Amino acid sequence: RSQIELYKVQHKDDHPGTVSDTWTIANFVPALTGTTDMDGVSVARGTDGALGPYLQKFPTNGFEADNTVRNATADADPNTESGDNGWWFNHTTGNFGVNTTEYIDR
Question: What is d(CA 49, CA 34) in angstroms, rounded to the nearest whole number?
């Protein structure tokens, strides 16, 4: 979560996965594990103005043994939505969490 917030600070208050004002879940993990410019466009490491990486590799969810992320909608509990991914991210609210049906005291 702290790396998501750091990304936002360095990228004009945009969440990871936003490239030139358009957000997609497909860009979320590469934005955190790669290097980008201020607009979220992927650039080579060492390029002038390159930011990141924020994570060396994306973590695996220990409950589900999965390191993929799905988009969660703002109007539902993310753990009751369908999906077999390890993590969920809501780009509207910025909330991020583990995807599991196991009880977690939040």
Answer: 13
